[in-house]
Design a protein that fits this description.
This protein is mainly alpha-helical. The protein has helices at about 1-15, 20-50, 55-80, 85-110, 115-145, 150-175, 180-200, 215-225, 230-245, 250-260, 265-290, 295-315, 320-345, 350-365, 370-410, 415-420. The longest helix is centred in the C-terminal third of the chain and has 44 residues, at about 370-410.
């Protein structure tokens, strides 16, 4: 009885989003599926590196996979606003399952080629262009504003617990059975998400259609809204820089493992798990602090410290130190991402939220093609250590520049203008 009471108290005090029935189904489905997603992520990276032996071609896969975000995120925001989000997610999750099963079949039958992986990566990116902002925007429909940050923190915890388990399981499976099993189990894991979505019963927010307003005008309206709001604008600028330069681990860690540490799949999986351990710790901390709402100062501080630890990773040749640095990097990853995401969702008006989150997807995930291409090129030319240092140094410089620019702008605003902005 005491255990049940303690569990109920923990949920009510720190994981209150789980008291919402709809969110519980959504969250439990994600718990299963995300482990499979991380198994596929490391399996695909190692498969491409094995097929080609080229860090540049590995980076190119990341570029191709995230290219649809860059090209179509603005349109996705307009589309998502006009349809129930549950229906969109059922389509996107079913497509992701089909693509994972197709890749597993290609590897099982020994017919996989680099070009096939590229096509599947492009199709997955196209699916995720609609899936990612929809998953972000549906949170507020199933938990409300009061529990939104707690739900985002719980999503981060789930994501990063999967980042710990997925690479560890995936690396072991690759070493014993080959990467095809990573892709197969990922495909099957989507059954849990689809079942959870089917159980959700929520009143969806669908923006009222306006007459004689085209897609381009709706996109322009969203961009004008963001430009006029300093909180949204600064947050999205920081996300652009960090998303482009600091989240290239899928490209750099396998190359770092192979070329700098001179080790194999198990160490690659272990380093990815170290990143996940830190991220899980950061997400757990954010769930305990979620009642206080997002903190903009944490966005700024974590972006700077994240950049510093990328530099430190580039300076080490020790697996132990690299693992510790990646764990700390994971903490700042989550502090940055959770506070940025929550700030945007809570601060944005209802009629603009999906468009704001589509811009978030554009600058966070849509910048990945540029980041992966740059990281792959840098690793090819300067080695993985040089690429880590280059990404960290540029990220640090740009983040400090944005902080300075907005502080200077804020100091020049008169009290009357500040009151108007509020």
């Amino acid at each position: 009885m005491n255990v049940k009471l303690a569990g109920a108290r923990l949920v009510n005090n720190h994981f209150h989003a789980l008291t919402h029935r709809n969110y519980r189904y959504f969250w439990m489905g994600q718990c299963v599926s995300l482990v499979g997603t991380w198994m596929q992520n490391i399996g695909q990276a190692w498969l491409v590196l094995t097929l080609t032996g080229s860090p540049f071609l590995l980076g190119l896969i990341g570029t191709i996979q995230f290219l649809p975000f860059t090209c179509l995120s603005l349109f996705a925001g307009v589309v998502i606003d006009k349809f129930p989000k549950k229906r969109i997610l059922l389509v996107t999750q079913s497509m992701s399952m089909l693509l994972a099963l197709t890749l597993s079949a290609l590897v099982f039958t020994d017919t996989v080629r680099y070009g096939y992986v590229m096509v599947l990566a492009l199709l997955l990116g196209l699916t995720n262009t609609f899936d990612m902002p929809t998953r972000q925007a549906i949170n507020i429909e199933i938990v409300g504003k009061d529990d939104l940050m707690n739900a985002i923190a719980l999503n981060s915890m789930t994501f990063n617990l999967a980042r710990i388990l997925g690479p560890a399981i995936g690396a072991t499976m690759m070493a014993l059975l080959g990467p095809a099993w990573c892709f197969l189990l990922n495909g099957l894991s989507f059954i849990a998400v689809i079942y959870g979505l089917l159980q959700i019963e929520a009143v969806p927010y669908v923006r009222e259609k306006k007459q004689n307003i085209g897609v381009w005008n709706e996109i322009k309206d969203g961009l004008v809204y963001i430009r006029g709001d300093q909180v949204l604008l600064q947050t999205l600028m920081m996300v652009t820089v960090v998303g482009t330069l600091a989240y290239n681990f899928a490209v750099l860690i396998p190359v770092f493992t192979k070329d700098v540490l001179m080790m194999k799949e198990q160490m690659y999986g272990l380093l990815m798990s170290c990143l996940g351990v830190g991220s899980f710790g950061g997400a757990l901390a954010m769930s305990f602090m979620s009642k206080k709402g997002p903190r903009r100062k944490l966005i700024l501080i974590s972006s700077v410290l994240l950049s510093v630890f990328l530099l430190l990773i580039g300076l080490t040749h020790s697996p132990l130190i690299a693992g510790l640095c990646l764990a700390v990097t994971g903490v700042f990853n989550i502090l940055f991402a959770t506070n940025s995401n929550s700030t945007l969702q809570i601060h944005a008006k209802d009629e603009y939220r999906a468009r704001v989150m589509s811009i978030y997807s554009l600058v966070f995930a849509g910048s990945t093609p540029i980041g992966n291409f740059f990281a792959g090129y840098a690793a090819d030319r300067y080695g993985a250590s040089g690429a880590f240092m280059l990404c960290g140094g540029i990220c640090l410089t740009l983040c400090l520049g944005i902080i300075w620019m907005f502080r200077r702008k804020a100091s020049s605003v008169t009290p009357g203008e500040a009151l108007q902005q509020k």
